[in-house]
Design goal:
This protein folds into two domains: about 110 residues, 3-Layer(aba) Sandwich (Rossmann fold); about 150 residues, 2-Layer Sandwich (Dihydrodipicolinate Reductase, domain 2), CATH 3.30.360. It is an alpha/beta fold. It has nine helices and 15 strands. The strands form two sheets. The protein has a nine-stranded mixed sheet, covered by helices on one side. Strands 3-2-1-4-5-6 form a six-stranded parallel sheet, with helices on both faces. The chain binds NADP nicotinamide-adenine-dinucleotide phosphate.
Length: about 300
């Protein structure tokens, strides 16, 4: 069993990391670093540095804080010789993630930049089906109600918090895994509330290396039915990945899928990487988002209040 500590006991740590670690045959929760909270039955520390020095047996940490503070934490954990699981997105900038990959490599520890949506039940069957098809177009709709999913999360609206790209990057993580070729950004429009620093909605136009257009629409103002869908047109019919990747329909026929187990699968992958003494740091989804911030047109929109 690998002794792991969680840093940042917020929504994702409680909803997914704690249960996934409790059920894992590979990991045991040995400590938690949190500014405000504690987990029953394990030592709690006010910050990561205190946890690292007090727990020499801690082999790994899962960093579940907002992306803006992840680089400093990951650097400290790597310098202390611990394996690191990064929540998505792996950082606030590409250069800091690059720095972490190099640091982990020289320290001989595992760095895992996780993308949970890639482990949604329909993604691997969709990737396998698409592998020998010609893709002629992709349409992504990731439209949810920010008040329902991110209430009071100030960090998400601040620089580095990504705004609507916080969920949107999940779609891009699936896209970059599904496509058998590269994809790049051609155009972007970001709608930013007058009182915030990050977009509430975005439209992206991308192109695959095979020449197919990819359109993405991310919107946090969706009420009613929530939509997390990717539609892929091919020479053999239409593939639809819905429900964030957990429902799959190919040429009109709904596929039977195993039940959702994204976080258990992430911890299996983390254990395998540690066992193989290797890292997995794929920044392609973050590159597309960074390109949208680099080149996207801005439009100021109605102020947003929680
Ligand atoms: P959250 O509920 O706001 O929790 C983040 C936690 O990080 C806080 O509770 C806090 O924990 C800690 N923290 C440390 N420094 C902080 C700072 N400067 N500002 C705010 N919190 C700070 O956020 P979350 O939804 O769990 O998301 C965390 C990360 O997981 C994000 O990168 C997000 O994209 C990713 N993620 C979220 C979900 C989801 O459904 N919410 C799903 C997948 C991935 P302490 O008080 O314990 O220190």
């Amino acid at each position: 069993m690998i002794a792991v500590g969680i840093v940042g006991l917020g929504k994702i740590a409680r909803d997914q990391h704690l249960p996934a670690i409790a059920a894992s045959p590979d990991f045991t929760l040995a400590a938690v670093a949190s500014r405000h909270a504690h987990a029953d039955g394990v030592p709690g520390y006010a910050d990561l540095e205190t946890m690292l020095s007090a727990e020499p047996g801690l082999e790994a940490v899962a960093l579940c804080q907002p992306p803006q503070v992840r680089h400093a934490a990951a650097r400290a954990a790597i310098a202390a010789g611990r394996h690191v699981f990064l929540e998505k997105p792996p950082g606030a900038t590409l250069s800091e993630v690059d720095d972490l990959a190099r640091a982990a490599d020289s320290a001989g520890v595992t760095l895992f930049a996780s993308w949970h949506s890639r482990f949604a039940a329909g993604v691997e069957p969709a990737r396998a089906w698409l592998a020998d098809k010609t893709i002629t177009g992709v349409d992504i709709r990731w439209m949810e109600d920010v008040r329902q999913w991110h209430p009071g999360q100030d960090w998400i609206w601040q620089p580095g918090g990504l705004g609507v790209f916080d969920p949107g990057i999940n779609a891009l993580s699936i896209l970059t895994t599904l496509l058998p070729c590269p994809v790049w950004l051609e155009d972007a429009l970001l709608e930013i509330p007058g009182n915030r620093s990050a977009p509430i909605a975005a439209r992206l136009a991308m192109r695959t290396g095979d020449g197919a257009p990819v359109a993405a629409r991310f919107d946090w103002r969706q009420t009613g039915r929530q939509v997390w869908a990717i539609t892929v047109e091919t020479d053999a019919g239409t593939l639809v990945l819905d429900d964030g990747g957990n429902a799959l329909t190919i040429a009109g026929a709904r596929r039977e899928l195993p039940s959702e187990r994204e976080y258990p699968a992430l911890y299996e992958r983390f254990a395998r990487l540690i066992g193989e003494n290797s890292s997995d740091v794929d920044v392609r989804p973050l590159k597309l988002v960074a390109d949208a911030f680099l080149t996207g047109r801005r439009s100021s929109t109605e102020a947003f209040y929680d």
